[in-house]
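USER:
I would value a second opinion on how I read folds in token form. Give me a protein, with the fold worked out from its sequence. Write it directly below this note and I will take it from there.

ASSISTANT:
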Amino acid sequence: MVKDISLAEVKDYIGHEVGVSRWFTVDQSMIDTFADATLDHQFIHTDPERARAETPFGGTIAHGFLTLSLLSAMNFDCAPRVREQTMGINFGFDKVRFMAPVKCGKRVRGHFTLKEARFRGAELLAINYAVSIEIEDERKPALTAEWITLIQFDAADRPEMA
């Protein structure tokens, strides 16, 4: 995996997987903390006994939004850094799909493919990633999405060919 690239090199990575994160374990403590932060205490997330008895999952599952939120840590873990970057901005998502539940105790990791990169104004580069979160030992990913981030940089660092 590439860890450090210049603004001029970004275009060379379009269409390529640029990072696979380390594994992250989604345990009950993480799920409960997320439930407290979002006020979403639905039993399928927070009550292991009831979830085991009343769902097909065999126990609790992570919130879809918890899984989605792990992309920030996964991205920081593996995606290349643009040398000239002064700040990164989460711009949003397109086509987020929750494909499979993440069962409590499972490990997940992110896959990042650079789909598109285009300059926006004198000091911003918009990067579109095709992302997926793999669940260890599962066929289907937990989610797939298109993630847009903005890379801010000093206008003096903008490549001439951009």
Summary: Strands lie at 4-5, 17-20, 24-25, 81-82, 85-98, 107-120, 124-135, 143-153. Helices lie at 28-38, 43-46, 48-54, 64-78. The radius of gyration is 18 Å.
